[in-house]
Known about the structure:
With 77 residues, the chain is α+β, with helices and mostly antiparallel strands. It is built from two helices and five strands.
Amino acid sequence: xxxxxxxxxxxxxxxxxYRGFELVxxxxxxxxxxxxxxxxxxxxxxxGAIGEDxxxxxxxxxxxxxxxxxxxxxxxx
Length: 77
């Protein structure tokens, strides 16, 4: 497990063994898990966003675009 990103609003953790990424919105206490080809696409998109502007504001805005995907409660997690 590797912490990829951590801000006041979001965190992203990579699980290399499972070829996956966990994305959690700290404010709503909800998250999701991407695995396989979807995780690879997410990783490429995240790296692209970092390449554009590595600021927390920009990355939080990028991650906010996944709002409809963030569907499980972290209290269950």
